[in-house]
Amino acid sequence: MPDRPRYYLTTAIAYPNNKPGLHTLYEVIGADVIARWHRMKGDETRFLTGTDEHSVNIAQRAQELGRDTRDFVDEMVKVFTDAEDALLIAPDRFIRTTDPDHQRASQEMVRRAYASGDVYLGTYEGWYCPAEGFKAPSDLYETPDGMRCPSHPTIELQWLTERNWFFRLSAYRDRLVAHFAAHPDWVEPEYRKNEMLAFLRAGLEDISISRETLHWGIPFPIAENGETAQREDGSWDPEAGVIYVWFDALINYITGAGFPDDPTAFAKWWPADLHVIGKDINRFHTIIWPAMLMSAGIDLPRKVWVHGFMTVRGEKMSKSRGNFFDPFDVIAAFGADGTRFVTLREFPFDQDADVSWDSFVRRYNADLANDFGNLVNRTVSMARRYLGDERPAPLPRTEGRLSWSWGKLPELYQAMIEDCMLHDALGLVFGNFVSEANQYVDQERPWEIAKAWKAGDEEAGERLRGVLGDLIEACRLIGLAGAPFMPSIAPRVLAQLGYAYPYAADGNGGPPLLRELEWGSHAGETGALGTAEPLFPRLESEAAAAEAPASGT
RNA sequence: GGCUGGGUAGCUCAGUGGUAGAGCAAGCGGCUCAUAAUCGCUAGGUCACAGGUUCGAAUCCUGUCCCAGCUACCA
Predict the structure, then answer these.
(1) What's A401's domain CATH number?
(2) Is A105 in contact with A251 (CB distance < 8 Å)?
(3) What is the pLDDT of residue A312?
(4) Is the dihedral of CA A55, A61, A64, A67 positive or negative?
(5) Helix or strand or coil: residue A204?
(6) Whole-angstrom Cα distance, residue A79 to residue A66?
(7) CA/C1' separation A17–B69 (Å)
(8) How many structural domains does chain A have?
(9) Which nucleotide minimizes the distance between its C1' and the CA of A432?
(10) Is A106 inside a domain boundary?
């Protein structure tokens, strides 16, 4: 296979200090859809997701539970990967920042920044909560007795100074501004880019990249005297401290591409085509990360997509608020495919959006059970009843109104997915086109054509085959187009229509999807229709609401 | 406080100078192939408020009110 395009995308990595909620996973679901789209299109695709395990919170949580930190994260990571498996998320690598190659990558990045003259020794000052560690001023409030931290209001905060290594972020402002100017699409949506431009305008301060008092982390590779902090026996001098978790976390994207162990792989996969991240970490990805890469002499990622937050009645969904969905509850009600669909259809990927259990049920019933599921069901039932098992062929592309409607839709659909406008892409196919197919049934009234045919009208038989052939073709196209979103339903749709499903479970291996999405691309082939079985059982709203978790309050 | 964006039918939103739109929800009617499904019809909403420009503004300008995002080291 000569020179297939390659596509490398990543999600942010999650802190496995607790069970993941749906609001954590929708980013991964969205990225998985984009990854599957590229795999099915025929691109050589690499999809990276994983966990960020060096946070203070994790070490602290393990301590609270009286657990060994490593044992604790191993267990929590399993919870994450189980949830992702249940959601049919198929990364090419699940990276953990505790992986050995990530330690090598992170240390190499520190060395490179140091070699570039961007790392120097300084002091970090800030409020320190004895129970929790350093706290940002924005997280604190002032009382007559001094500064307090919300989680431990009775404890007096201390103003501490810590010796740290700093990264000369300030030196990169002009280069960053120039990069933004030269690559106007590199951060999207545009308003997120503008926020960062405003931030850059205000100027940059250097950032600390080491923590001398922490031990859960990647050993800082450079000693105070500028020599290596590695000892004769290979171990790292604890005096050197650890790499600050943010500096290490970002580096996962290049570790996952082969840096620094496998230069061939790295040359192939880097720069990444897409980082999918949340709006809370925009600055880290579009200012700090590119500066780190510039300092190391590595190309910048091509695009960073910043999605919004899932909210419940205007409040951010979060574990601490308790207003979140357990992904397993959602999967139990809607299935993995249904969960992926309702999540991405109800949630515009470019902004915050309010979701509720009820809105999920409505969306599932309207789009999947009533419109699409029922379309497949009525189409297959009619074809079998009137014409038998053998699948009728669609009309040539220029003749039927459905093929005309389909027209340039795949092109638009592709543009929407590749622009990360996943809700719009779903609306196009599962809103507009499915609706047109249902309208077509009522306009053509196949049951009446069938009666006429039975009554001896020979021409009616041809018409009936054409109408049902077109409807079957519409179902094939919808099922395939929807496969990145609903990977386990797609093969079942095609089976009912008498088609084999040519892709592997992760979307690899089949023919180029865009060719499959051409109207009539299998028109010449014979096939036997399967049995019409409901693909998306309708949910009763009240019953479903009764099972709703925390959100129902 | 500063910067940016926004306030349009019950809900979510589209619409950037020329007779107010879509989807969902609701009501009425049709059809019977289908998962009580589908199809058609039904919204008369001061387009936040007040001025202004214009033959004409939701769409441009000014002011006011309200909302959201950003305004650096919690990860």
Answers:
(1) 1.10.730.10
(2) yes
(3) 80
(4) negative
(5) coil
(6) 19
(7) 28
(8) 1
(9) B23
(10) no
Helix (H, G, I), strand (E, B), or coil: what is residue A190? Answer: helix
Length of chain A: 553
Task: Tell me the pLDDT of chain A averaged across its residues.
Answer: 90
Which residue(s) pair with A305 in the sheet? A188, A276
Q: How many CB atoms lie within 10 A of CB A331?
A: 20
CA A409/CA A414 separation, integer angstroms? 8
Here the tokens at position A310 are 């899932």
- Rounded to whole angstroms, the distance from the CA of residue A479 to the C1' of nucleotide B3 is 46
Cα separation, A226 vs A111, whole angstroms: 10
Q: Which two tokens stand for residue A388?
A: 């038998």
A123 CB closer than 7 A to any strand B atom: no
Summarize pLDDT for A133-187 with one digit per residue, the tens: 666 665 666 666 666 666 666 667 777 788 899 999 999 999 999 999 999 889 9
pTM for this model (two decimals): 0.93
CA of A178 to C1' of B65 (A): 39
ipTM of the complex as predicted: 0.90
**Structural domain includes residue A528:** yes
Q: How far is the CA of A191 from the C1' of B19 (A)?
A: 35
Has residue A418 been placed in a domain? yes
Question: Of all nucleotides in the shown strands, which has a C1' nearest the CA of A377?
Answer: B34
* Token pair recorded at residue A550: 């925390």
Per the domain annotation, does A485 fall within a domain? yes
Domain that holds residue A441: 364-543
Residue nearest to nucleotide B3 (CA to C1'): A198
Res A553: pLDDT: 29
DSSP, residue by residue, A491-542: HHHHHHTT----S-TTS-SSS-HHHHTSTTTTTT---B------SSPPPPHH
Q: Which residue is nearest to nucleotide B68 (CA to C1')?
A: A352
A436 and A405 in contact (C-beta within 8 Å)? yes
Contact A257, A265 (CB under 8 A): yes
Tokens of A66: 């009286």
**Tell me, what amino acid is at A214?**
L
3-state secondary structure of A70: helix
Task: Give the pairing of strands A187-188 and A141-143.
Answer: unpaired
**Which residues in chain A show pLDDT less than 50?**
542-553
CA of A284, C1' of B41: distance in angstroms: 53
